[in-house]
Amino acid sequence: MRLALWLLGLFAVAVAAALFAGNNPGSITVFWPPYRVDLSLNLVLVLLLGAFLTLHLAWRALAALFAIPREARQWRLRQRERNMQQALLDALSNLVAGRFVRARKAAESVLVQVRAIEAHGDHLGYAGHLQAVSHLLAAEAAHALQDHKARETHRQAALEQAGAGAAPETREGVQLRAARWALDDRDAATTLQVLDGLGQGAARRTLALRMRLKAARMAQRTAVALETARLLAKHRALSPVAAEGVLRGLAIERLLGAHDPAQLQKAWGELDPAERAMPDVAIQAAERLHDLGGDAQLARQWLLPVWERLVAQPSGLDAPRAVQLVRVLERGFAGAAGAPDSAWLARIETAQMHNPGDPVLQYLAGVTCMRLQLWGKASQLLTQSLARLQDDGLRRDAWRQLAELADRNGDQAAATQAWRNAAQR
Fold it and tell me: Which of 330, 314, 333 is nearest to 322 (CA)?
């Protein structure tokens, strides 16, 4: 279609020229004393067109002649750029393939070629970015080769080039890799320092948060690790099961790091409600409070959500956790200051009545009655629990409690048999 339009246009121009030139009687007279020259208008037009074309072609030829040095220079520059690109690809390919020596040499070759281009007076708009990436690849290869001195040299050069004109992402990438290298070197303090130097947006990326979590745990900075784990869970960078496990472990570690009741209460208050509701966390917090000589009433207050979960749904806690809960409550009931109050006595009796077949609740109810000096009821409940208790520790303690009750009643034979049974567990 386009060719047909061109032909139609050419025919139209030819027809117009023929009509104009065929019936054109015009002439041009040139006076050059003592001469006179008469020329037809058509000839003058043809001569003018020929002169224009001749001058145009001559100008193009001269321009092409004088452009030869510039074109040669551009050609050499393009060749150097192709060589740099090839060297950069070689560096990346060898680095991924684990050929670190070759990767380092290829990256350094890129740097040499960039300096050679600038030495010849040429300037690449992306030279800063290219040099920063090349230094980063060389530093990565040096890190793999355990050449820390060369790694730091290239890292510093990459930061300088990234700040001189490269994209902000390049500088952030260099800092993130530096943090990764420090983490590989087991230098948690340097890792955290580098991550703290990142911008707010880069510091909250998943990669940075994962490294911060590892470094904080390595440096035993539990508070920082816990806050970072919460951010990872919020961003869904961890699966729900993994997030719960990490948060549970860090919360317990935070609580176990307290050295007095005041520190423990402060650490407990810093936990999120979801973390305080975890059975393992609450049980460990109450047990740690008992270890530090804290308030038994406060420990039972921390355990109340776990107790309610056990009572509301017996299968809500597995057997080991239920035993741990009973152990902590029993420990809190020991001594005059920790004796169960009427509220807890009502809770335990109600739970035992609603679940009469649960031996763990029967054992706890028997211990509670014993602390309240209800000797008969305590003996009855402890005896009933022995038939179904699966935990050896609880069975041993139940026999021990029965032995103490028998001693109190003066039944030496029953006490001796109970102590013998307790010793066999």
Answer: 314
Going through 238-319 in order, the beta strands assigned E by DSSP cover none
pTM passes above 0.90: no
- Chain-centroid distance, C-alpha 160: 26
Residue-level pLDDT at 404: 79
Which of 247, 346, 352 lies closest to 310, judged by CA?
352
Q: Give the residue-averaged pLDDT of 70-82.
A: 82
Same domain? For 265 and 304 the reply is yes
Dump the DSSP string for 283-312.
HHHHHHHHHTT--HHHHHHHHHHHHHHHHH
Nearest-angstrom CA–CA distance, 202 and 195: 9
The reported pLDDT for the residue numbered 363 is 82
**pLDDT confidence of residue 398:** 79
Contacts of 166 (CB under 8 A, 6+ apart): 128, 129, 132
pLDDT higher than 60, residue 336: no
Residue 332 is encoded by which pair of tokens?
Answer: 């809190």
What is the C-alpha to C-alpha distance for residues 362 and 347, in angstroms, rounded to an integer? 13
Whether the upstream peptide bond of residue 34 has omega within 30° of 0, thus cis, is yes
End-to-end CA distance of the chain: 102
Last residue of a domain, one of 338, 356, 371: 338
Domain of 390 in residue numbering reads as 340-425
